Amino acid sequence: MGHLHWSYLEVGLLVVFYWGLMIWWIRRAKRKQDFARPLTEKEFYKFLERIWARHF
């Protein structure tokens, strides 16, 4: 009976790991899409302001 409980625990851990990996992969793919789209004028201005503030 103890062996059966360990099997359920192993399957549960595998499922949790799998779902965690899927969530990470989906977030990573979404983030790449966000980087791929062009910046608006306002976003570009903010980006330049951060660069200028950092260097001067």
Question: Can you give a write-up of this model?
Answer:
The chain has two helices and no strands. The protein is an all-alpha fold and 56 residues long. It has one domain. The chain starts with a helix and ends with a helix.
Write a short abstract of this structure:
This protein has 2 helices and no strands.
Topology:
Layout: H1 2-36, H2 41-55
Task: Note the main attributes of this structure.
56 residues, mainly alpha, 2 helices, 0% strand
Put simply, the count of helices is 2
SSE string, helices as H and strands as E? HH
From the structure provided, what is the oligomeric state, counting identical versus distinct chains? single chain
Main sheet summary: none
Number of domains: 1
Question: Overall mean pLDDT score?
Answer: 87
Radius of gyration: 22 Å
Helix percentage range: over 70%
How many strands in all? 0
Provide the low-confidence segments as ranges: none
Cα separation of the termini: 69 Å
What class would the helix/strand composition place it in? mainly alpha
